[in-house]
C-alpha cells in the first residue's frame, strides 16, 4: 500500500519550529512502523543498546515495586496507611506499564510480552495483598471488578465503579435472536446447504465432537468455542472469525481468516489475504482440501478459485519477527488428510 | 495550549483534517478507506500496524489514519490520538457476540482527554449482511444517548461492499469539523 504522508509546508515563523519538531518525530515513528508493515515479518533488529537499557530500567522499577509490596505486611499494623500505600504502588505499576507500551516500538515482541506478563503479575500480587490485608466488606466490589477487567490497562484501584447498566440494552438480547447457525451440540453431524441464495452471517458455536459441513457460499462466518470438531466450509466471501477452539480440524476458503485463542488445531485453507493468528498455539496449516458437487463454481463466484499460496503465509500477532513463530507450523504432507468430499450429506464421519 | 493553536493555524491554511479510524479488528476499517478512495478492495489483509491515506474530499485534504484493531495492538491506538479532528468508530453490525467488547473499547476511547474535542462518527458497517443490526439497534447497545453532551456525534449505517452510507457519514464528519475549525472562512 502506498502509505505516505505529504510533508507539510512549514511556515517560517518561530512557533512553527515546535510543530516541525513534532512532525519530525512523528514522521520517523511513522516510517519505522510503515516499514514494519511493509516488510511484514521481516525483523528489524532493534539496537541491543536500547533494549538492554530498557531492561535494566524495567528491572529497577520492578524491584522497587516488589520491595514496596513486601513492606505491606508491616504497614498493615496501621490500617489507615494501607490504602494510600496500595494506591501508590498501583500508580507505579501503571507507570511501569506505560513505560512498556512506549518502548514497545523498538522492543522485540518477546520482551514486550514478558514485560507485560510481569506487569500483570505485579497487579495480581497487589490485588491479593490488598484483599488480604484490607477488611473485606469495605471492598466487596473488588473481585467483581477485577475479574471483568483483568487485562485492562488501568490498575484496578483506579477503575471507577460503575453502577450496573440499567437503561442500556445488553447485546445478549441480540445474540439470542435467530441468526442462522449451529449451536450447543454434542457428537452430531451438522449440515447446512446454501445453494443459490447466499446467506448472510453464519455462526458455529459451542460444539463438542461434532462435524460441520457447510455447502455453498456465506458472507461472514463466526466460529466460537469448539472442541474436537471437524468443520468443513465452502467459500466465505467476507471473513472468517475463529475464537477459542481446541483439537479441531478446519477446511475453509475465505477472503480473510482471523484466528484467536486456538489450540492444537489443523487448518486446511484457501485464502486471498494473509491468515492471522493471535494468542494461539499448536496450530498447523495446509492447503484447502474440500470438495462437493459444484464447489468449483462456488469458488469462482466468490473470487476464490486462484491458489494464492497464502495458506502458508500466516502472521502471528504475538510474534511479528523474521524467526518462525513457535505457535504454528506447516502440516507435514504425509500427515495431511486427502480430499474431503462432503457432497453426500448421509455419508459417515470418516476417521482422520 | 499554545501548541494546539499553532497546529490549528497551520491546518487552517491547508484546509487539512486529521481523521482517526478505529474499531475492533474485522470491523471493516481498511475496506472503508479503500472504498472511499476508489481503490480495489478485493484483497485486504488484517492491518498489522496502520495505513495512512491522504485524500482530497470536497475542498479539504483528509489525512486518514487507519489503525489495526487486533487485540494485541489496540494498546497502540493511544499513539495516534494527538491532533485528531475526527474520530471514526467502525462497528461490524453482524458480529453480535463481540458487541460488548465493542462498547467497552469505545467507552475507553471516549474517556481519552486528547480526543475530547474531536467529532465522532460511528459507522454501523456491513449493513449488506442479512442479520446485521440496524444503526438504531447499534446505538442502543452502545448507549450512545448517554454520551457526554458536549460531544458532536452521529451514527450512520453503511456497507463498505456497496458503498452505501459512506459518503453520508463522511459528509457529516467533514462538515462538523469544518464548522468547528474553519468557522472563519
Ligand atoms: N459483507 C461485508 N463485508 C465487509 C464489509 N466491510 C468489510 N467487510 C469484510 O470484513 C473483513 C474485515 O475487513 P477489514 O477492512 O480488513 O477490517 P479492519 O477493520 O481493517 O480490520 P483490522 O485491520 O484487523 O483492524 C474483510 O473480509 C472484508 O471483506 C461490508 O460492508 N460488508
Ligand atoms: Mg485494517
UniProtKB/TrEMBL annotation, chain A:
Domain C-CAP/cofactor C-like: 163-319
Superkingdom as given in the UniProt entry: Eukaryota
Compartments where found: Cytoplasm
Key words, A-Z: Acetylation, Chaperone, Cytoplasm
Gene Ontology BP, a term: post-chaperonin tubulin folding pathway
Database matches in SMART domains: CARP (SM00673)
Family annotation (InterPro entries): C-CAP_CF_C-like, CAP/MinC_C, CARP_motif, TBCC, TBCC_N, TBCC_N_sf, Tubulin-bd_cofactor_C_dom
One Gene Ontology cellular component: cytoplasm
Biased composition (Polar residues): 39-55
Protein name from the UniProt record: Tubulin-folding cofactor C
Lineage: Eukaryota, Viridiplantae, Streptophyta, Embryophyta, Tracheophyta
UniProtKB/TrEMBL annotation, chain B:
Positions contributing to Mg(2+) binding: 30, 47
GO MF: GTP binding; GTPase activity; metal ion binding
Keywords recorded for this protein, A-Z: GTP-binding, Lipoprotein, Magnesium, Metal-binding, Myristate, Nucleotide-binding
Amino acids binding GTP: 23-30, 69, 125-128
Entry annotated with the keyword Metal-binding: yes
A Pfam family the protein falls into: Arf
SUPFAM superfamilies: P-loop containing nucleoside triphosphate hydrolases
Family assignment from sequence similarity: Belongs to the small GTPase superfamily. Arf family.
Protein name from the UniProt record: ADP-ribosylation factor-like protein 2
Organism annotation: Cicer arietinum
Amino acid at each position: 500500500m502506498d502509505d505516505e504522508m505529504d510533508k507539510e509546508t512549514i511556515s517560517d515563523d518561530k512557533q512553527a519550529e515546535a510543530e516541525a519538531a513534532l512532525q519530525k518525530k512523528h514522521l520517523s515513528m511513522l516510517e519505522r512502523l510503515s516499514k514494519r508493515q511493509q516488510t511484514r515479518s521481516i525483523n528489524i533488529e532493534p539496537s541491543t543498546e536500547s533494549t538492554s537499557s530498557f531492561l535494566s530500567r524495567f528491572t529497577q522499577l520492578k524491584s522497587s515495586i516488589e520491595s514496596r509490596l513486601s513492606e505491606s505486611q508491616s504497614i498493615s499494623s496501621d490500617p489507615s496507611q494501607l490504602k494510600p500505600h496500595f494506591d501508590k504502588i498501583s500508580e507505579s505499576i501503571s507507570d511501569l506499564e506505560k513505560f512498556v507500551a512506549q518502548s514497545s516500538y523498538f522492543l522485540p515482541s518477546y520482551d514486550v510480552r514478558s514485560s507485560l506478563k510481569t506487569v500483570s503479575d505485579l497487579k495480581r500480587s497487589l490485588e491479593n495483598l490488598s484483599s488480604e490485608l484490607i477488611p473485606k466488606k469495605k471492598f466487596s466490589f473488588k473481585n467483581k471488578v477485577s475479574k471483568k477487567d483483568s487485562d485492562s490497562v488501568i490498575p484496578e484501584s483506579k477503575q471507577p465503579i460503575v453502577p450496573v447498566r440499567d437503561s442500556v440494552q445488553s447485546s445478549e438480547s441480540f445474540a439470542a435472536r435467530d441468526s442462522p447457525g449451529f449451536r450447543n451440540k454434542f457428537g452430531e453431524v451438522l449440515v447446512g446447504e446454501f445453494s443459490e441464495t447466499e446467506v448472510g452471517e453464519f455462526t458455529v458455536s459451542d460444539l463438542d465432537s461434532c462435524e460441520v459441513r457447510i455447502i455453498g457460499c456465506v458472507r461472514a462466518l463466526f466460529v466460537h468455542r469448539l472442541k474436537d470438531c471437524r468443520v468443513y466450509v465452502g467459500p466465505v466471501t467476507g471473513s472468517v472469525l475463529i475464537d477459542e477452539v481446541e483439537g479441531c480440524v478446519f477446511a475453509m476458503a475465505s477472503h480473510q481468516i482471523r484466528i484467536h485463542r486456538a489450540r492444537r488445531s489443523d487448518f486446511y485453507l484457501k485464502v486471498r489475504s494473509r491468515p492471522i493468528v493471535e494468542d494461539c498455539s499448536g496450530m498447523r496449516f495446509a492447503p484447502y482440501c474440500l470438495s462437493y458437487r459444484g464447489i468449483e463454481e462456488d469458488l469462482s463466484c466468490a473470487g476464490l478459485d486462484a491458489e494464492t499460496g497464502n495458506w502458508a503465509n500466516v502472521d502471528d500477532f504475538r510474534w511479528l519477527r523474521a524467526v518462525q513463530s513457535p505457535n504454528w507450523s506447516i502440516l507435514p504432507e504425509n500427515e495431511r488428510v486427502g480430499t474431503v468430499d462432503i457432497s453426500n450429506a448421509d455419508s459417515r464421519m470418516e476417521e482422520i | 495550549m499554545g501548541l494546539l493553536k499553532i497546529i490549528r493555524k497551520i491546518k487552517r491554511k491547508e484546509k487539512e483534517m486529521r481523521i482517526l479510524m478505529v474499531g475492533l479488528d474485522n470491523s471493516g476499517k481498511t475496506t472503508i478507506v479503500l472504498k472511499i478512495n476508489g481503490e480495489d478492495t478485493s484483497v485486504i489483509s488484517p492491518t498489522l500496524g496502520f495505513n495512512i491515506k491522504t485524500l482530497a474530499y470536497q475542498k479539504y485534504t483528509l489525512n486518514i489514519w487507519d489503525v489495526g484493531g487486533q487485540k494485541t495492538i489496540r494498546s497502540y491506538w493511544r499513539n495516534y490520538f494527538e491532533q485528531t479532528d475526527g474520530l471514526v468508530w467502525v462497528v461490524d453490525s453482524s458480529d453480535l457476540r463481540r458487541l460488548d467488547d465493542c462498547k467497552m473499547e469505545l467507552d475507553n476511547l471516549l474517556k481519552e482527554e486528547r480526543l475530547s474535542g474531536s467529532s465522532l462518527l460511528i459507522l454501523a458497517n456491513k449493513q449488506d449482511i442479512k442479520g446485521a443490526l440496524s444503526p438504531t439497534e447499534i446505538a442502543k447497545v452502545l448507549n450512545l444517548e448517554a454520551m457526554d453532551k458536549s460531544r458532536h456525534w452521529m451514527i450512520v449505517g453503511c456497507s463498505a461492499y456497496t458503498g452505501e452510507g459512506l459518503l453520508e457519514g463522511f459528509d457529516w464528519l467533514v462538515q462538523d469539523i469544518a464548522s468547528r475549525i474553519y468557522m472563519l472562512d
